[in-house]
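Q: Got a minute? One more chain.
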Amino acid sequence: MAEKVRHLLGISGGKDSAALAIYLHDCYPSLDIEYYFCDTGKELKETLELVKRIEGYLGKEIKRLGAVENEHFEPFDYFLKSVGNYLPSVQARWCTQKLKLEPFEDYVKDSPCISYVGIRGDEDREGYISTKPNIQTIFPFRRNIWSIEILTSFFQNENIEQIAGLYDLHAPREIVEKALEIVRTPKTMRYTVSKKMKALHQLSVRVFNRVVFEFLKGTDKPVALLEDFPLLDNEDNLVRDDIFALLENSGVGVPEYYKKIPFTVDGLTGEYARSRSGCYFCFFQQRIEWIWLYEQHPDLFKKAAEYEKDGYTWIQGERLEDLIRPERIRQIKLDAIRRNEQRANKRSPYLVDLLEDAEGNVCANCFI
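A: Always. Here it is, folded:
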């Protein structure tokens, strides 16, 4: 008997993973999905409230995964102590590894697993891809559900005749000739994996997915253990507006920290919000988000500031106690107003649209 493939979806407390849970629950009810949440012990209450609302909508438990079992320390504090109070940063993201990735991989262990990740169709990235061979990532929000690792292997020139045979078997008569022409054109520096995939997508996304699926039957990938896979018929390409619509229409709602709050400085009105889920002291926060935390959750800001010692700071070159000096707050808010005005053509009800582009990239590995 073939080993059972597990289907897993990590809930981060953010908009994309929440919407993905709703989407798969509604569109692919035949999938027996295990939902999990990696609890760092440093989440915003709004994050935990969202997880509970998703649980209610799904009618299914979201498994809480902890990085450590220690009654004296929350997971983050335990690992912080183990690294000598060295705060995580862009250069040393030990928090992601220890608090998110390792608990997930320990939960999966060696069982074959398909991990569903909420990268949208308007994003040009892949996020976390496990290096463990028993974990395969699928992207349901994208027209291309396969990871770059799968596509790179699939489009190797030595596979041309095998792929051609699969297209000859599965493609309808009206597209098979054109499909074989594309397939038999070797991949080069100019004719890249992306270009070849897009050309085949234009003929039929469903046929392309079926051919990839049949190709993977000859590999050790988890999907090869499935008799069939409902996402082969997926042609959706969901973007940011679709994500917010899924959340609102389901009744789960958007996490409160995404909703913009007005502020006034020097007679000018601006708005701020939070652009990500995750720990309240996430070092990927923009400065205006730190000001949001200071003014909306002063108790948590105070706790975040208490972690700064021995020269370690959350923001390179600036301590939180300096960030909240009145003149510094004024300047940060004025800068935020200027950036928002520059991106006025991108405005949405949720300031996340602007914040994600403001001072740096969002964390790609904390499960969207």
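A: The CA atoms of residues 340 and 354 lie 7 Å apart.
Q: Perfect, thanks.
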